[in-house]
Design goal:
Blueprint (H helix, E strand, L loop, with lengths): L1 E4 L5 H13 L3 E6 L4 E6 L16 E5 L19 E3 L2 E3 L5 E5 L6 H13 L4 E3 L17 H14 L2 E5 L6 H7 L2 E4 L7 H7 L6 E4 L6 H13 L5 E5 L17 H8 L4 E3 L1 H5 L2 H13 L4 E5 L17 H13 L5
Parallel strand pairs: 7-8, 7-14, 8-9, 9-10, 10-11, 11-12, 12-13
Antiparallel strand pairs: 1-3, 1-4, 2-3, 5-6
The structure holds phosphoenolpyruvate (PEP) and manganese (II) ion.
Amino acid sequence: MLVVMRNDATDSQIQAVVDEIERMGFRGVPMPGAQRTAICIVGNPGPVDDSRLLTLNGVKETIPVSKPYKLVSREMKTDPTVITIGDVKIGGGKPVVMAGPCAVESEEQALTIARQVKKLGAQVFRAGAFKPRTSPYAFQGLGEEGLKILGKVRQETGLYIVTEAIDHTNIELVEQYADIIQIGARNMQNYSLLRRAGLSSKPILLKRGLSATIEELLMSAEYIMSGGNLQVILCERGVRTFANHTRNTLDISAIPSVKEVSHLPIIVDPSHAAGRREYVLPLARAAIAAGADGLLVEVHNDPTHALSDGPQSLYPEQFAQLMKEIRTLKFMG
Ligand code: PEP
Ligand code: MN
């Protein structure tokens, strides 16, 4: 259930509603929006008796929530959520570009690519220090050493950092270096990781699972938000289908579909969807045209020798072309 406050409601009236919800044995999460603040009741196993709440000062109405998810839903917050990281805004405006290699391989590799993507207009540097790989024998990432390199990239280039946390114990280290914590496709339903991400003060980039429905993706976001972290960025990265001409099938319809039911920003990773660099640019164009709030793109200065995902990594010249082309789409402003 949502408790919708009048638009002239004061902070103390909002707090009084939260306190009353707690007295009822549940939790109240205020979601300030452009038009109004709504307070979402979470932790209730069934219907809530709203008679007492309706008598409190500043309360306009209560609305039952029709979806299984609450905090992520548009019913809860009608205006789009904008996540601010320094001077970068994700959601509801100009698309943001996050670019870099699949993994940090060395300081020289990370800095070389970071300088290139920065010059070409990326705002966030992507690279994994901890890599959840399909094979236990594949490169697993440099671990903490990789995070330290990302710290240097941030310091030297001013790019913000998005990097992956792979479990609920590892996230504590990752959040010391990351501006955005990535939860990978394989971990979309790792509930202990989602719960721990809900306690973080850093924005979370939540990637759609390999065979996850939009509802499952949103329920995973709900785990994070119900823990108190309202800064969630969703990411469509392709799902597994019968089609084998690409690594995964990019679900462009995920963008309008998420936007219809949720206020959260959604970005697109055309690299893991395509699996081949030749397809990344057309998929990126399509994503921006369909209303994505940004792109997460793999770029490598020497993809032939990349330790992971070389075939789908763009050469810097191809990334330059991508930036040029998406800028010409009117959505980039
Ligand atoms: C990645 O971004 O490098 C990655 C491993 O992506 P995904 O979790 O989508 O496979
Ligand atoms: Mn990768």
